[in-house]
Amino acid sequence: MDSLLSIEQLSKSFTLHNLNKHINAVEDVNLYLKEGEFVGITGKSGSGKSTVLRCIYRTYLPHSGHIWYHSQRFGRIDLVTVSERMMIELRRFEIGYVSQFLNVMPRTTARELVRHAIVEMGYDTDYAENETVKMLEHFELDRSLWDSYPGTFSGGEKLRLNIARAMVKRPRLLLLDEPTASLDHGSKVKVKVLIEQLMKEGTTMLGIFHDLEFMENLCNREYQIKDGKFLMADRQTNLTPH
């Protein structure tokens, strides 16, 4: 099976002008995901894990290398060089991203955030409302918060909403950047249930986790990152690749 995503010799660095310092975040990263796989990335904080995901989502522009993606809409494309307009289309219809942080437009309620994620894919408002209710109920977000602004939410509530907004779209490729970082055990279980459901439906995932127990029996393969370089982990999970 051809890879849905293939990263070749990806490098990204940053210049801190105020400190007159140059930092190599990741260097010569090579990684692949076959369709339907869940691949995990582990490593210490600051090792470059999130940088890789942000390069795929194109919130960071790599300095060198290629990120080949088999798009339903556009065929095989390099996410490093595609236009901004094309990236917007991919984020809307094919590629999802969950981070630890919730960035939203002011004066937008939790219900509106999730519903808009579905409507922008072309679904009608009735379907969008039904799916929104299902997702908010799954994550047990208190009904009194549904029509409130997320700025008033706790960290865990914001994270649950962020995950709900990304997962409700059922993207082809889902990038997960520490999605369980500030969640209690019960909420982590609900995230895992949805991940397993999306995997059965064919979503391909690349996830960063500090919680190695959460990853157990979930990932097909694991990469370890150290000093900006990727290595295939020795520990293999028990999940059979799709």
UniProtKB/TrEMBL annotation:
Signal sequence extent: none
Pfam family, one: ABC_tran
InterPro entries per UniProt: AAA+_ATPase, ABC_transporter-like_ATP-bd, MetN_ABC_transporter-like, P-loop_NTPase
Main location: membrane
Domain ABC transporter intervals: 5-242
One GO term describing the cellular component: plasma membrane
Membrane topology value: Peripheral membrane protein
Entry's Gene Ontology molecular function annotations: ATP binding; ATP hydrolysis activity; lyase activity
Protein name: Phosphonate C-P lyase system protein PhnL
